[in-house]
UniProtKB/TrEMBL annotation:
It is found in: Vacuole membrane. Pfam families: VIT1. Belongs to the CCC1 family. It comes from Morus notabilis. It is a multi-pass membrane protein. The chain crosses the membrane at residues 46-68, 74-100, 134-157, 163-184, 196-215. It catalyses: Fe(2+)(in) = Fe(2+)(out). This is Vacuolar iron transporter.
Length: 221
Protein backbone atom coordinates (compact mmCIF):
# COMPACT_ATOMS: atom_id res chain seq x y z
CA UNK A 1 0.00 0.00 0.00
CA UNK A 2 2.90 2.32 0.76
CA UNK A 3 4.41 1.67 -2.67
CA UNK A 4 1.09 2.35 -4.35
CA UNK A 5 0.67 5.60 -2.40
CA UNK A 6 4.19 6.65 -3.30
CA UNK A 7 3.58 5.80 -6.96
CA UNK A 8 0.36 7.83 -6.95
CA UNK A 9 2.12 10.70 -5.25
CA UNK A 10 4.95 10.69 -7.79
CA UNK A 11 2.58 10.42 -10.73
CA UNK A 12 0.94 13.68 -9.71
CA UNK A 13 4.08 15.50 -10.77
CA UNK A 14 3.67 14.29 -14.36
CA UNK A 15 0.16 15.57 -14.89
CA UNK A 16 0.13 18.12 -17.73
CA UNK A 17 -2.56 20.77 -17.56
CA UNK A 18 -3.14 22.50 -20.90
CA UNK A 19 -3.08 26.26 -20.55
CA UNK A 20 -5.55 28.06 -22.75
CA UNK A 21 -5.24 31.85 -22.77
CA UNK A 22 -8.38 33.65 -21.86
CA UNK A 23 -9.91 36.49 -23.83
CA UNK A 24 -7.83 39.14 -22.09
CA UNK A 25 -4.57 37.30 -22.74
CA UNK A 26 -5.49 36.75 -26.37
CA UNK A 27 -6.18 40.46 -26.73
CA UNK A 28 -2.79 41.26 -25.17
CA UNK A 29 -1.08 38.77 -27.47
CA UNK A 30 -2.62 40.48 -30.48
CA UNK A 31 -1.31 43.80 -29.20
CA UNK A 32 -2.53 47.09 -30.50
CA UNK A 33 -2.67 45.95 -34.13
CA UNK A 34 -6.38 45.28 -33.90
CA UNK A 35 -8.03 48.63 -34.63
CA UNK A 36 -11.69 49.20 -35.32
CA UNK A 37 -11.38 51.47 -38.33
CA UNK A 38 -15.11 52.03 -38.47
CA UNK A 39 -14.72 54.23 -35.36
CA UNK A 40 -12.49 56.51 -37.37
CA UNK A 41 -15.08 56.97 -40.10
CA UNK A 42 -16.89 59.97 -38.66
CA UNK A 43 -13.97 62.22 -37.75
CA UNK A 44 -11.95 61.07 -40.75
CA UNK A 45 -14.81 61.93 -43.10
CA UNK A 46 -15.18 65.39 -41.54
CA UNK A 47 -11.44 66.13 -41.64
CA UNK A 48 -10.89 64.95 -45.20
CA UNK A 49 -14.07 66.61 -46.42
CA UNK A 50 -13.19 69.90 -44.74
CA UNK A 51 -9.62 70.02 -46.06
CA UNK A 52 -10.64 68.91 -49.53
CA UNK A 53 -13.50 71.40 -49.62
CA UNK A 54 -11.23 74.26 -48.53
CA UNK A 55 -8.62 73.40 -51.14
CA UNK A 56 -11.02 72.91 -54.04
CA UNK A 57 -13.25 75.89 -53.18
CA UNK A 58 -10.47 78.43 -52.78
CA UNK A 59 -8.38 77.11 -55.68
CA UNK A 60 -11.43 77.14 -57.97
CA UNK A 61 -12.37 80.64 -56.81
CA UNK A 62 -8.86 81.92 -57.48
CA UNK A 63 -8.75 80.22 -60.87
CA UNK A 64 -12.08 81.80 -61.78
CA UNK A 65 -10.97 85.29 -60.78
CA UNK A 66 -7.62 84.73 -62.46
CA UNK A 67 -9.33 83.85 -65.72
CA UNK A 68 -10.53 87.47 -66.11
CA UNK A 69 -8.19 89.46 -63.81
CA UNK A 70 -4.41 89.40 -64.09
CA UNK A 71 -3.83 91.29 -60.85
CA UNK A 72 -2.42 89.04 -58.14
CA UNK A 73 -4.12 91.16 -55.50
CA UNK A 74 -7.55 90.31 -56.90
CA UNK A 75 -6.81 86.59 -56.77
CA UNK A 76 -5.47 86.76 -53.22
CA UNK A 77 -8.40 88.82 -51.96
CA UNK A 78 -10.86 86.43 -53.57
CA UNK A 79 -9.03 83.45 -52.09
CA UNK A 80 -8.85 84.97 -48.62
CA UNK A 81 -12.55 85.88 -48.71
CA UNK A 82 -13.31 82.32 -49.78
CA UNK A 83 -11.21 80.96 -46.90
CA UNK A 84 -12.98 83.04 -44.25
CA UNK A 85 -16.47 82.52 -45.67
CA UNK A 86 -15.94 78.82 -46.23
CA UNK A 87 -14.48 78.20 -42.77
CA UNK A 88 -17.39 80.00 -41.13
CA UNK A 89 -19.89 78.13 -43.30
CA UNK A 90 -18.32 74.77 -42.48
CA UNK A 91 -18.22 75.54 -38.77
CA UNK A 92 -21.83 76.70 -38.61
CA UNK A 93 -23.08 73.84 -40.74
CA UNK A 94 -21.21 71.24 -38.73
CA UNK A 95 -22.34 72.79 -35.43
CA UNK A 96 -26.01 72.74 -36.44
CA UNK A 97 -25.77 69.24 -37.86
CA UNK A 98 -23.98 67.72 -34.87
CA UNK A 99 -26.18 69.58 -32.39
CA UNK A 100 -29.24 68.11 -34.08
CA UNK A 101 -27.71 64.66 -33.72
CA UNK A 102 -26.91 65.45 -30.07
CA UNK A 103 -30.53 66.45 -29.34
CA UNK A 104 -31.87 63.31 -30.99
CA UNK A 105 -29.53 60.97 -29.09
CA UNK A 106 -30.15 62.81 -25.82
CA UNK A 107 -33.91 62.48 -26.20
CA UNK A 108 -33.54 58.80 -26.99
CA UNK A 109 -31.42 58.28 -23.87
CA UNK A 110 -34.01 59.94 -21.68
CA UNK A 111 -36.66 57.59 -23.02
CA UNK A 112 -34.58 54.43 -22.59
CA UNK A 113 -32.48 54.92 -19.43
CA UNK A 114 -34.16 54.37 -16.11
CA UNK A 115 -33.85 56.99 -13.33
CA UNK A 116 -31.94 54.68 -10.99
CA UNK A 117 -29.16 54.08 -13.51
CA UNK A 118 -27.53 57.45 -13.01
CA UNK A 119 -23.99 56.16 -13.48
CA UNK A 120 -24.83 54.55 -16.80
CA UNK A 121 -26.49 57.78 -17.87
CA UNK A 122 -23.27 59.67 -17.21
CA UNK A 123 -21.23 57.16 -19.18
CA UNK A 124 -23.60 57.38 -22.11
CA UNK A 125 -23.45 61.18 -22.09
CA UNK A 126 -19.69 61.04 -22.52
CA UNK A 127 -20.20 59.19 -25.81
CA UNK A 128 -22.44 61.89 -27.26
CA UNK A 129 -21.04 64.06 -30.08
CA UNK A 130 -19.60 67.46 -29.24
CA UNK A 131 -21.02 70.18 -31.54
CA UNK A 132 -18.42 72.83 -30.63
CA UNK A 133 -15.54 70.42 -31.16
CA UNK A 134 -16.93 69.30 -34.51
CA UNK A 135 -17.40 72.91 -35.64
CA UNK A 136 -13.85 73.88 -34.67
CA UNK A 137 -12.37 70.82 -36.36
CA UNK A 138 -14.28 71.49 -39.60
CA UNK A 139 -13.24 75.14 -39.68
CA UNK A 140 -9.58 74.25 -39.07
CA UNK A 141 -9.61 71.52 -41.71
CA UNK A 142 -11.15 73.88 -44.26
CA UNK A 143 -8.59 76.58 -43.47
CA UNK A 144 -5.67 74.16 -43.79
CA UNK A 145 -6.84 73.10 -47.23
CA UNK A 146 -7.49 76.69 -48.34
CA UNK A 147 -4.04 77.96 -47.34
CA UNK A 148 -2.23 75.89 -50.01
CA UNK A 149 -3.45 77.76 -53.14
CA UNK A 150 -3.15 81.13 -51.37
CA UNK A 151 0.51 80.56 -50.57
CA UNK A 152 1.14 79.24 -54.08
CA UNK A 153 -0.21 82.40 -55.72
CA UNK A 154 1.29 84.91 -53.30
CA UNK A 155 4.85 84.67 -54.63
CA UNK A 156 4.23 84.47 -58.40
CA UNK A 157 3.90 87.72 -60.35
CA UNK A 158 3.43 86.32 -63.88
CA UNK A 159 -0.28 85.75 -64.53
CA UNK A 160 -0.14 82.54 -66.55
CA UNK A 161 2.56 81.04 -64.40
CA UNK A 162 0.51 81.90 -61.33
CA UNK A 163 -2.53 80.05 -62.67
CA UNK A 164 -0.39 77.03 -63.52
CA UNK A 165 1.25 77.04 -60.08
CA UNK A 166 -2.12 77.21 -58.32
CA UNK A 167 -3.39 74.28 -60.41
CA UNK A 168 -0.27 72.19 -59.77
CA UNK A 169 -0.16 72.91 -56.03
CA UNK A 170 -3.88 72.15 -55.72
CA UNK A 171 -3.40 68.86 -57.59
CA UNK A 172 -0.51 67.80 -55.35
CA UNK A 173 -2.45 68.72 -52.23
CA UNK A 174 -5.45 66.76 -53.47
CA UNK A 175 -3.27 63.70 -53.93
CA UNK A 176 -1.88 64.12 -50.41
CA UNK A 177 -5.34 64.46 -48.86
CA UNK A 178 -6.60 61.45 -50.78
CA UNK A 179 -3.60 59.35 -49.74
CA UNK A 180 -3.82 60.38 -46.07
CA UNK A 181 -7.52 59.57 -45.92
CA UNK A 182 -6.94 56.19 -47.55
CA UNK A 183 -4.05 55.26 -45.25
CA UNK A 184 -5.88 56.23 -42.06
CA UNK A 185 -9.02 54.45 -43.17
CA UNK A 186 -7.18 51.45 -44.66
CA UNK A 187 -8.82 51.83 -48.08
CA UNK A 188 -7.20 51.58 -51.55
CA UNK A 189 -4.84 54.54 -51.95
CA UNK A 190 -4.89 54.73 -55.75
CA UNK A 191 -8.66 54.74 -55.95
CA UNK A 192 -8.98 57.42 -53.29
CA UNK A 193 -6.34 59.67 -54.87
CA UNK A 194 -7.86 59.34 -58.33
CA UNK A 195 -11.35 60.13 -57.10
CA UNK A 196 -10.22 63.23 -55.17
CA UNK A 197 -7.95 64.48 -57.96
CA UNK A 198 -10.49 64.13 -60.77
CA UNK A 199 -13.16 65.83 -58.69
CA UNK A 200 -10.86 68.77 -57.94
CA UNK A 201 -9.86 69.13 -61.58
CA UNK A 202 -13.49 69.20 -62.65
CA UNK A 203 -14.35 71.91 -60.11
CA UNK A 204 -11.41 74.12 -61.13
CA UNK A 205 -12.02 73.63 -64.85
CA UNK A 206 -15.74 74.39 -64.64
CA UNK A 207 -15.19 77.50 -62.50
CA UNK A 208 -12.39 78.75 -64.75
CA UNK A 209 -14.34 78.13 -67.95
CA UNK A 210 -17.68 79.61 -66.86
CA UNK A 211 -16.09 82.68 -65.27
CA UNK A 212 -14.00 83.34 -68.36
CA UNK A 213 -17.03 82.86 -70.57
CA UNK A 214 -19.05 85.40 -68.60
CA UNK A 215 -16.12 87.78 -68.37
CA UNK A 216 -15.49 87.79 -72.14
CA UNK A 217 -19.09 88.25 -73.23
CA UNK A 218 -19.56 91.86 -72.22
CA UNK A 219 -19.69 91.74 -68.40
CA UNK A 220 -17.64 94.61 -66.97
CA UNK A 221 -15.26 93.50 -64.24
Amino acid sequence: MASIGARDQNSSYHVEIPAHPNAMEQKQQRGDDHVDYSQRAQWLRAAVLGANDGLVSVASLMMGVGSVKKDVKAMLLAGFAGLVAGACSMAIGEFVSVYTQYDIEMSQMKREIKPESGMENGVEKEKLPNPAQAALASAMAFSIGAVAPLLAAAFVSEHRVRLAVVAVVASVALLVFGAVGAVLGRTPVMRSCTRVLVGGWMAMAVTFGLTRLIGTTGLEM
